[in-house]
Input
Amino acid sequence: MKRREFLTLPAAAIGGTLLYTLAGEPIRLQAQNGTVKVPLRFFTADEAKVITAACARIFPSDSSGPGATEANVVIYIDRQLAGPYGRDKYRYTKGPWVESYPEHGYQGKASPSETYREGLKTLGDFAGLSPADQDAKLRSIEKSYFFQLLRQHTIEGMFCDPMHGGNAGLIGWQLAGYPGPQMSYRNEVDKHFGQPWRPKPASLEQIAGRAGKPWEDEKG
Amino acid sequence: MTNLKPVDVAIIGGGWTGLLTAKEITAKTSLSVAVFERGGPRKLPDYAVTMDELDYNIRLRMMQNTAEETITHRHSLKDSAVPVRQHGSFHPGTGTGGAGEHWGGASFRFLPDVFTLRTHLLQKHGVARLPEDLSIQDWAVTYDDLEPRYWKAEQMMGISGKAGNLRGQKIDGGNIFEGLRQQEYPTPPLKHSYASSMFEAAVRRMGYHPYPTPAANLSEPYKNPDGIQRGACQYCGHCQRYGCMVGAKAQPSNLLMPVLGRRKNFEFHTGSWVRRIVHKDGRATGIQFTGENGEEFFQPASTIVLASFTLNNTRLLLLSKIGTPYDPNNRKGTLGRNLTHQVGTNTRVFFGKPLNAFMGAGELGSRISDFDGDIGFTGAEGEPLRLGMIALSINGRPPIGSFGVMPQGATKSNWGSEWKKAALEWTDRWAAIGLSGEHLAWRQNYMDLDPTYTDKFGDPLLRFTLNWTDHEYKQREFAEQIQAKVAREMGAKFDEGRRSRDRYNVINYQSTHIQGGAIMGTSPENSVVNRYLQHWDVPNLFVIGASSFPQNAAPNPTLTVLALTYWATEAMTDRYFKHPEKLI
Output
């Protein structure tokens, strides 16, 4: 069995609702010297640094607000790739594998996790590059399936329910003015016309009073 | 292979049609009825913690597992088909309730002329003006046959809406173009959202006749004739692709299973994947299915009802070698013929104000039928033969799926700082004016078995040969012109339609309205089933569902599927079970 890899994050980055299903088991993380160590499911610590850096260019932390780093998008992606989605448990994977028209979508054999492993090779020592060089590097692979997945997963990690590991501290929902799942808008739906109405965001667990079962934690 | 104890009626598929058939037969007879559903069990409390966009709206957790079985697609007879490797243009359901659990709830009656489409268009245009490859035909039932059954389905679900043609009286605010209704809707329309109220005001100023989308999402608490009490919709915005956590959306799990659970002559088998209908000398003898652990079973039955989704109804008949497969080259054979989907096109409209569009319901919207069917069309140049409904709906705007929608050309890149800033600015400031358009049947669009790709058991996948024709391009172009006029009247910024001439694609969601393959008709030469959905060649086999539609009609099909289910089960309980032979 491979050695367990950890991602070290500033303790301040971990929201209270973030870590309750890590690795499918309850792990209480202790902040030491202002940092916490998050066990990784798929990436190595080095790979996680590269993905963190790439996501930070796709969805940057800048004058328009926090980004992928603060939302812990890398943790989200790590869990997705280790789960049934990353392993193509729900995609038709019988051959023959043939190229087809764009209207037939992705017809490749590689699963999302395999696509990332290959894609990481093309990124090389990405975390060590300057932001301008990082952008140039991403621009050069922008048409690849790997980049399309990375971009899509970055948005997912920004705005998913925090039970999936991203959107730490509901930071993505606060940024976009999205309240999260709420039990009822019956008294609001036909009001506030033309005015922003922004109830305080809450996670599914906070709303439902019990935790959901994220698909990536499915066994088998 | 284990032989099971015989039952009177074996039903394949535990969705709307299969469970409604079971409910009707067990209510009116003492026959033993067993339903076989390949997916898993499901119940209302499951939905309390499923308001999760990622797993349900994006990863499509309630849908069939494409790893086990999918379809293949090709655009024309000249191409080779490739598998649809992950769900895209439509979403077949699985498990208790099937797609009836995750549907949006739009519940329309079809226009009366839909049922006599071929006769109607021949009278209007003459045979010389209709394209040669057009494969449309009349249904074998009429609107008048279905009207009382539509009402039964509306009562069962408690449809929220407003009548526009009540016993011949046209009522402003309802759909004045609809067929004659004997009864007002069971519950009043849903509330208006900001965006749909702007649409409604605009189309009204333009002289059109808007009405609220009739919906299976209850506008107020309601008790149906079976005594099932449900609460009102909470507009939570997690509806289509989700099960309803409060049961306000009509679903087989909350309307049919509670009734069936009390019936002693009913059995329900989940995890039971029906592989073949076994038949001999023109009679079906039973079904062969594989259980969850891979064991093979034979279930003998006197009558079989094939009531799964359109795809599997056709595929199971093909695999079981019941009927004559259709050949598009010589137009001979009937099985697999007249595959239709739905014609759609959207015009995105952008506003200077937020819409609060995270609040919504599966079918919360306003629409016009002023261009439905061929209302107002004279056959002039540029007009399609048929069109459909133009609508604006707010179904609950999820943050992942909608992030990054902005006017065309707003930013050069679709990632990075500039893109992020623009995406945040446009978040919650857009909606879409849609088309729900009629898809006519064409000679070359059909289903058969794929020669190459197989399912998890090694059985051939179903193959779609399907592409858009000039008629559908014309429908889209015409609809986009109307949408642009409405967008201008709404004072919105909008994207010019660009997609009208795209080929059929299996990636972008269109609708789960797939019709045909086992269509109804007046003779074995033009159809697979008769007007009671009884198979022409095998009289103790009924095939129920949108597979029986000769072609698509503009509105969502579920209500018509349910009305047809009532129609067919009445024929079974009133006549067929007394003399289980050909009804015609």
User: Anything to note?
Assistant: Chain A touches chain B through 69 residues (CB under 8 Å). Chain A has one domain: 6-217. DSSP finds seven helices and two strands in chain A. The first strand of chain A starts at residue 6 and ends at 10.
